[in-house]
Amino acid sequence: MDEIIKRFREGNQRAFEELFWGFFSAGRQFVKSFQVDDSSADDILQEVFIHIWNKRQSIESENHFKAYFYKALRNNTIKYITRNKHILNLESAENKESDDVLLKITEIEFKREISRAISLLPEKRREIILLSMSGMSEQMIADTLNISINTVKNQKTKAYAFLRQELKDISSFVLLFGL
């Protein structure tokens, strides 16, 4: 990811697009947590990304980008609410505990990392894990995919081993915050 940040700082349009699409969904979810409608959330996101593009030389790392991104989203969302006298009580938005905001960001980032790790699995293994996560039993998965139950068990074991390895850096963080 820091390679993308390096290219982004140099003004690489492709790196900007990768960051935009990599953070768009999580950013939109974050803005919408303030009870902002989809269209306005998209406008706020675009405004933040334009601002970040203009300040790209000051972005030093992926962590710096994330911190800058979410702080700018929060500030721009509160400005939007103030300007538009949105239904949400501004006072409660401004007085939110910083821990609550951090927890929201952490949850969004954690879900994004899990989705990213799952997307790296081979297609069949990914399909088995997604079916399992949707609540299907191993037998139901085997029947649905027309494979043996042992294949399902074997592929799940391999998938979980891969996911544990891929997510090892955030696993201690998750235990610390009890997510």
Overview features:
10 helices, elongated, single chain, 179 residues, mainly alpha
| Mean of all residue-level pLDDT scores | 82
Helix run count: 10
Distance between the termini: 24 Å
Largest sheet: none
Helicity, in percent? over 70%
Q: What radius of gyration results from the CA coordinates?
A: 20 Å
Poorly predicted residue ranges = 175-179
- Overall structural class, as computed from helix and strand content, comes to mainly alpha
Oligomer: single chain
Strand-residue proportion:
under 5%
Quick one: overall form?
elongated
Please write the string of helix (H) and strand (E) elements.
HHHHHHHHHH
Describe it.
- There is one protein chain.
- The chain has 179 residues and is an all-alpha fold.
- It has ten helices and no strands.
- The chain has helices at residues 2-9, 13-32, 38-54, 62-84, 90-94, 98-119, 123-133, 138-145, 149-166, 168-177.
- Helix 1 packs across helix 2, helix 7 (123-133) packs across helix 9 and helix 8 crosses helix 9.
- The chain is elongated.
- The two termini are 24 Å apart.
- The model is unreliable at 175-179 (pLDDT under 50).
